[in-house]
Prior knowledge:
The protein is mainly alpha-helical and 255 residues long.
Amino acid sequence: MQNNDSLLESKHKFRLFVTASFSSLVKLKQEGDKSSFNKLVLEIIPELRKYINGRLSTAIQKGSFPRGKYKADEFIDQLFIEIYDNIEEVESQEYFYLWLYKRVNQLLDDSIDEEEFDDFFFKNIDDYSKPEWDEMEENFSIDGGGDLLLIEELDDLSYNHNDYVLNHVFVEDKEKKIVEKIDKELSAEQIKKHIAMVLYSLPERMRRVFELTAENIELEEIAELEDKDIEEVQQLFSEAKEALRTSFFNRDALG
């Protein structure tokens, strides 16, 4: 995808910015300058808001809680308090980036129940045919209550990095031709919707590991962030990639 390099670079720059901001935030708190502290945090918030919105959107669509019950701003407001009250517990400026995502996940987990996932889909993903994918694609734009699920929402929420995700799935040199074929045979909108459908249907813990890798976080760091063994995280990531790979192979673009 054409935007892969810029997307990766953007994530990398954001992580560097967060890391560099840590010492300034600590100093501002020590000086009691809460106004300047909050202004600096505001520069960090937009990328975190995308991640929060992504998890909220999926939870709403899966019925974990009613539409409109929670807004990203509620979690953002709490995050401001969490950062200001607890920044001293951050071990180092290098750890600050992971610490932020850990705090965000803790805030969300307190409100979002572990949602059910489509077990039939996950176990039978390798049997889905082209007509079945087309049918899913049509139905995906409508939620259980008959309301439209606006795909443009996904650009701003959990799937704002779909261009990156595609190359993230097909990472080996020998798979570059596969990416080129997908680009040729499927429109950007079809790729976006396809990835959204698959990630939406994965177990929450699996999807979360995969999406955190899209936030420029390594698997070893995710294991620490999620309090999981590295082997478990690697397995979850591998299974998520395999589900996405299989889903694309079964579309007529690769048939």
